[in-house]
């Protein structure tokens, strides 16, 4: 990584971008699974059975983490652009990351 | 040389170039500009670079030091040196003229495009405008006003690198200062320009500009202010269109 990018709010930008990209790549798969329901019970049940595998559950943890990270990061940006300026942007970015991890861990604990 | 520093200096012009290594003796309280000047005076008189005041007032000596844009006259060697090595390059995002001197024309042209000059309507025959230094508008203008045009923010901005038309943090910071100057009478025209395709809404709030600004200004805050101001202007316009 180039030296001028090694600062925490660039990391916040990068995580927001990459999480958005990850979610965008997941969306076609999400719609495909929803489409299975239209084909009948059997196809969807086969998928749901597959989704019970531990590795898939762990992958879902990653997905929830990406979703929560993009959500909380997006809230920070909305606040930055629409509310009076605050100099605590690094704190807010750290809170967004921590909250995303907390939500994803909560999901994982419920899933296992 | 026992206490020497290896300095890799970018040499070349608009067509490209390469790094050239120099050995420079380390001195107490030595700045990066001292190092570059020592190279030019003792090792290679053909080295080109730009400076004027040497005390952080004029904004002309900014360069990339170890990959980070810095004002070289106020950057001490012992604060930025890594393993007794320094890398000095011309500012990023600006065309190189020769060696460490870059062409600042587009940087200043964008100030002009952003209507970065004061446009008053009062003459000297009228009384001086009474503006409270405690007013929120004046405080917002003051917070953005100490820019020395060094282009460090411009060099640190990835949006400038991605979109060559983007006005950049310094021009938008200047526009924000004038948008909060109650004596200025070109605020509607300026807002249209800075809210356009090359304006404030392009900013990704990475805050490289605020991180590296040597005068500790916060162009990201100024740009966020312009975003809010243009959003209010747009919503007011829509409201007026619907309700007369």
Structural notes for this entry:
The complex is a heterodimer of chains A (112) and B (244). Chain A is mainly α and 112 residues long. Chain A has a domain at 3-20 and 52-111. Chain A contains 4 helices and no strands. By secondary structure, chain B is an alpha+beta fold. Chain B has 10 helices and 7 strands. Chain B has helices at 32-42, 77-80, 105-113, 136-143, 152-156, 158-162, 169-179, 187-194, 208-212, 219-243, and strands at 4-13, 16-25, 62-65, 68-71, 85-89, 96-98, 101-102. In chain B, strands 2-1-5-3-4 form a 5-stranded mixed β-sheet. A two-stranded antiparallel sheet of chain B has the order 6-7. In chain B, helix 4 (136-143) packs antiparallel against helix 7 (169-179). The chains are: A mainly alpha (112), B alpha+beta (244). The interface between A and B is medium-sized, with 15 and 23 residues.
State the main characteristics.
heterodimer, A: 112 residues, mainly alpha, 4 helices, 84% helix, B: 244 residues, alpha+beta, Ubiquitin-like (UB roll), Fumarate Reductase Iron-sulfur Protein, Chain B, domain 2, 5-stranded mixed β-sheet, two-stranded antiparallel ribbon, elongated
How would you briefly describe this protein structure?
The complex is a heterodimer of chains A (112) and B (244). Chain A has helices at 8-39, 41-50, 54-82, 89-111. With 112 residues, chain A is mainly α.
Secondary structure topology:
The complex is a heterodimer of chains A (112) and B (244).
Chain A: H1 8-39, H2 41-50, H3 54-82, H4 89-111
Chain B: E1 4-13, E2 16-25, H1 32-42, E3 62-65, E4 68-71, H2 77-80, E5 85-89, E6 96-98, E7 101-102, H3 105-113, H4 136-143, H5 152-156, H6 158-162, H7 169-179, H8 187-194, H9 208-212, H10 219-243
Parallel strand pairs in B: 1-5
Antiparallel strand pairs in B: 1-2, 3-4, 3-5, 6-7
Helix pairs in contact in B: 3-7, 4-7, 7-8, 7-10
